[in-house]
């Protein structure tokens, strides 16, 4: 959701109001209790309604895998999945994500700790240097494969173009996605 939406600066110090999953009844400012479904777990939080999903994940829930790069929708470091689709969490209000399945990098490994094939492929192909962009790259890459937009190198580069890497690990990232694409076809993840 674009940040151009304007809000009142007034932070109403009122009692928390329960917010409905469909967003009805949400005010443009003030605080409310939200139920966020993150990595299969419902997390109840009380937030200012102007809080981005990125800040809710990092500052309130302690899930710091999603990174704050530009905070303006231009780098992809904050990418998470909502209902399997990639979104920029810096441009998404936490309130708008309520009741929808949110997946962050912390939720990719299975309950035995086995890494997702995309995580494993990034390791095997050395697809990171500093690692700052990596959680966003991995989540975006998973969606890219699921969308059917990873059929060849050119397509991967095009559909991953919203995820920037200052370390320029792009060739290794493409190679990792090509490997994981096959593994994801064979498995269900
Ligand atoms: Fe969200 Fe850069 S931090 S796109
Ligand atoms: Fe450093 Fe991508 S690995 S920004």
Topology (elements, then pairings):
Elements: E1 17-18, E2 31-38, E3 41-48, H1 53-60, E4 79-82, E5 85-88, E6 101-103, H2 117-124, H3 134-146, H4 153-159, H5 170-186
Parallel strand pairs: 1-2, 2-6
Antiparallel strand pairs: 2-3, 4-5, 4-6
Helix pairs in contact: 2-5, 3-5
Bound molecules: FE2/S2 (inorganic) cluster (FES) (2 copies).
Q: Can you describe what's shown?
A:
With 189 residues, the chain is an alpha/beta fold. It has two domains: 17-107, Ubiquitin-like (UB roll) (Roll); 117-186, DNA polymerase, domain 1. The protein has helices at residues 53-60, 117-124, 134-146, 153-159, 170-186; strands at 17-18, 31-38, 41-48, 79-82, 85-88, 101-103. Strands 1, 2, 3, 4, 5 and 6 form a six-stranded mixed beta sheet that branches. A hairpin with a 2-residue loop joins strand 2 and strand 3. It is globular.
Features:
globular, DNA polymerase, domain 1, Ubiquitin-like (UB roll), 2 domains, binds FE2/S2 (inorganic) cluster, disordered N terminus, 15% strand, single chain, 5 helices, alpha/beta, 6-stranded mixed sheet, 189 residues
